[in-house]
Specification:
Elements (H helix, E strand, L loop, with lengths): L2 H11 L5 H6 L16 H7 L4 H12 L9 H6 L6 H18 L4
Helix pairs in contact: 1-6, 4-6
């Protein structure tokens, strides 16, 4: 996939790109998103109002896959080792589309 998005996905996995991550490392002065909530991975994927359309598209795509019934941050960032590699690649492609469509890292 896209190298920039691959790097962003990795940074999300390792808690080193969102405001709360940077705040905990004394790099920025506030953990808050521009919407006023703490910006962490959960917020990025599940509650940021600005990303509602992209999030709905992501969840619709993932819930159309028969073997997926629980979507959480761990799943979105790391996939599921019980699923075949080919299915995890599809999951990551959808997550990468979400990262792109959110425009958070432009």
């Amino acid at each position: 996939g896209n190298r920039k998005i691959n790097i962003i996905h990795t940074k999300l996995r390792h808690n080193c790109i969102l405001n709360n991550d940077l705040f905990r490392r004394n790099i920025i002065g506030s953990p808050l998103c521009s919407c006023g909530q703490v910006e962490n991975s959960y917020h990025f994927f599940f509650s940021r109002p600005l990303y509602k359309q992209a999030r709905n598209h992501l969840f619709n795509e993932l819930l159309n896959i028969d073997q997926i019934n629980i979507i959480d941050t761990q799943f979105l960032l790391w996939g599921n080792e019980a699923l075949p590699e080919s299915l995890n690649k599809i999951i990551f492609a959808h997550v990468h589309n979400y990262i792109r469509d959110s425009s958070r890292f432009n």
